[in-house]
């Protein structure tokens, strides 16, 4: 059974920065903001929203704990080609992300796995774009 949608939490003060990072680094895959049913909830996807951002306001004194928890998140998006994986990596780094794994094959996951990883500049979460049909450079 495929996943229908997912929602991540972002501090309200970082909402616009996260939107900019996502659309800048994943836009070449057709990923875009599709709706804001209310000002603090945003849906992204290609045709229909499947990746949602909801905001929260950390309680005073909990900001550091919240930031640490958000850094532990991992999100992976599928690319059709290894070129799209490479484009993601460049676009994400240009948008302020830090490299967490250069584009390349990762046969220890499975044969044909080609991915790239970054930590986003807003939350520090791990974002990946992967092509599952890599047959060599």
From TrEMBL:
**Cross-referenced SUPFAM superfamilies, in alphabetical order?**
Glyoxalase/Bleomycin resistance protein/Dihydroxybiphenyl dioxygenase
- Which InterPro entries does the UniProt entry name for this protein? Glyas_Bleomycin-R_OHBP_Dase, VOC_core
For the VOC domain, which residue ranges apply? 2-132
Name of this chain's protein? Glyoxalase/bleomycin resistance protein/dioxygenase
What is the originating organism of this protein? Amylocarpus encephaloides
């Amino acid at each position: 059974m495929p996943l229908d949608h997912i929602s991540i939490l972002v501090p309200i003060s970082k909402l616009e920065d996260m939107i900019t990072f996502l659309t800048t680094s994943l836009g070449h895959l057709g990923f875009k903001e599709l709706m804001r049913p209310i000002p603090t909830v945003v849906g992204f996807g290609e045709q229909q929203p499947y990746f949602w951002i909801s905001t929260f306001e950390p309680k005073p004194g909990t900001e550091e704990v919240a930031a640490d928890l958000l850094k532990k998140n991992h999100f992976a998006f599928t690319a059709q080609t290894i070129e799209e994986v490479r484009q993601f990596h460049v676009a994400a780094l240009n948008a302020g992300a830090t490299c967490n794994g250069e584009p390349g094959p990762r046969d220890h996951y499975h044969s044909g796995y080609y991915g790239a990883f970054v930590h986003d500049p807003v939350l520090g979460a791990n974002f990946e774009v992967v092509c599952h049909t890599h047959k060599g450079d």
